[in-house]
Amino acid sequence: MKKIKILSTKKLSKDLKCLFDDLKFDLHHDDFISIQLLRLNLPNHNGSWIFTSKNAVEAVFSNNQNIDNFFNKIYCVGKNTKELLIKKGQKITKMTQNSSTLADFILKKAKNEKFIFCRSNIKNEEFSDFFNKKNIELKELVAYNNIARPIKYNQIFDAILFYSPSGIKSYLINNSLNNSYCVCIGKTTSKYAHKYSNKVLSCNVPTIENVIHKTIKLFEND
Fold first, then answer.
1. Which terminus of the chain has fewer Cβ atoms in its 10 Å neighbourhood, N or C?
2. What DSSP element (H or E) covers 195?
């Protein structure tokens, strides 16, 4: 039986790799993005903070000591981001599954607050523009760099697993999507993938595990 070829654009842990049946799937995985945490001097801010990734949390807390009581309110995106913030001793005011849902919540419930958004060097234009259009004060603090690792693969995959728009960009530097399914972690990534493919699937809850489960389900009848 011909195996189903899968590429994950993020290296998977042993436990995650084991979710794929070796007899059915030919799994390849590589980091198409490397992360560089930046040294930060946090500004004094008595307003609210936004974290949309674990990388931003790691950058802030790895460079700044004794900041347990530094943050007033924290809004975040994703279960993993929330869990890491809690591990760092923080209380979360609101968590949503994606940035657009968080923006909508802030507009309805917190539009008079002032925000600092800890992000990567790659700007989420849609998220930032939302605050500007709604006249909500937002300052952006670059906490880490997303650096492309454009690895070349000389084969065609049945499905490619993507976790960010920057991962898609990095993959496309040396490769094409051909007729592969693009299985994406969430709305922002799938929206970007739709620019290059009409075979895009997105997870309702953005976790790596859900990307894998959606991929396995896609081929369950093959």
1. N
2. none
Q: 26: part of which helix (H) or strand (E)?
A: strand 25-29
Task: Read off φ and ψ for residue 146, nearest 5 degrees.
Answer: -95, 115
Distance CA 26, CA 36 (A): 30
For the chain, how are helix, strand and coil distributed in percent, rounded to 5?
A: 30, 25, 45
Per DSSP, the three-state class of 54 is helix
Three-state SS sequence of 113-167: CCEEEEEECCCCHHHHHHHHHCCCCEEEEEEEEEEECCCCCCCCCCEEEECCHHH
Whether 144 and 117 have beta carbons less than 8 Å apart is answered as no
Cα 173 from Cα 120, distance rounded (Å): 20
pLDDT in tens, 150-175: 999 999 999 999 999 999 999 999 99
d(CA 207, CA 214): 11
Paired sense of beta strands 181-184 and 159-162, if any:
parallel
Tell me the pLDDT tens digit for each residue of 26-54. Answer: 999 999 999 999 998 899 899 999 999 99
In 3D, which of 26, 34, 8, 48 has the Cα closest to residue 166? 34
Pairing relationship of beta strands 200-202 and 33-37 according to DSSP bridges: unpaired
Report how far residue 183's alpha carbon sits from residue 105's, in angstroms, rounded to the nearest whole number.
27
3-state SS assignment for residue 14: helix
